[in-house]
């Protein structure tokens, strides 16, 4: 279906009631050609709403070397029987690519989905038919709401992709009746994605040694906030980790801020800035100071990162994500060293 024929239908859906003679959005399934068309569009912020994305997809006009590409980063915890790719096949925005967090990773690491090397990243993007000039909007699953898309968005940004956004969120996209499709995804033509150069990479990653040095610094208190996105029971050491071999507990002086507290309880969207600011104030997290976000494997830590960006409207260059997070910390740190704490202390 041609873009110009599709646009009035979607524009009516995102803007109000359907005019007489216009088909409902649920009948529009053929968006595959849109993934290869050139277009212009305007997305106002890093987090975008379903209506903003739908308008951008359908109000855009042809422009050389510029495309808007939806990308699913569906992912579930290892103790969940569901898989991201199965969820992607069951329900997705038409024309989407699938960013597999478990495959686009550092294959030399024993830790799950660590940041890939630039060459591995470039090869993955090429195989997905992505160009360096593409604008990518990453989204999650209808089942979980905001969960793993912020991690994929952070990965894209850190590895130098210049135009990245996160949809807030796919559950609302589905609730608003915007187009979805199911089944095996089509094959996209391979592109020649250029490997990012060192100067294009963002310094937003914290390592084990970085965090250990910080924790052992007697003058650290109040200078840097280490914020843990895991459920509070795991932070306290009272509930088990989803990876059975790992003890629960927390990094000394870290702040427990379960990522679910940053989401709307019904839609699972990231809360508005005004509400996020109040939450961060309650937790004594200063938006103007450096922070390191952590979680189980560096996935939901990115929700804290995105919520901080949403709260102050800017990306603080001193905000980092501990890539290995608790999975690495619990394997390398010890209780004897005082580097693993349990309880509220």
- Poorly predicted runs are 1-9, 15-40, 61-65
Strand-residue proportion = 5-15%
The beta-strand count equals 10
Inertia-based shape: globular
Radius of gyration: 21 Å
Order of H and E elements? HEHEHEHEHEHEHEHEHEHEH
Order of strands, widest sheet: 1-5-4-2-3
Comma- or semicolon-separated keywords:
alpha/beta; about 350 residues; 5-stranded parallel sheet
Can you put this structure into words, describing what you see?
The protein has helices spanning 3-15, 50-59, 84-90, 118-127, 149-158, 170-175, 208-215, 232-236, 273-282, 301-312, 325-332, and strands spanning 47-48, 68-72, 97-98, 135-139, 164-167, 205-206, 225-228, 255-256, 291-294, 319-322. The chain has 345 residues and is α/β, with parallel strands linked by helices. It has a five-stranded parallel β-sheet with strand order 1-5-4-2-3. The protein has a five-stranded parallel β-sheet with strand order 6-10-9-7-8. Helix 1 runs antiparallel to helix 2 (50-59) and helix 9 packs across helix 10.
